[in-house]
Amino acid sequence: MIAGYNEKRVADKEGLARFTGFYLFLMSFIIMVISIIGMIFDINTTIPYTIAVVIISIRMAFGHRKYERKY
Length: 71
Hints:
By secondary structure, the chain is an all-alpha fold.
């Protein structure tokens, strides 16, 4: 998510940091919840895990745009 970071294009560094931090925390929390549910019920959690990571990653990729300067 942060690999394409270009400091010259970012208008609001603190906002971008809060946005990225929130979604990374959310992703880790959801992964932990899915893992605990999988352990309790002894089920395969590959599909829910993949769906959660993909959805949050897409949201982060598109959400970063509002913190960039408009040229």
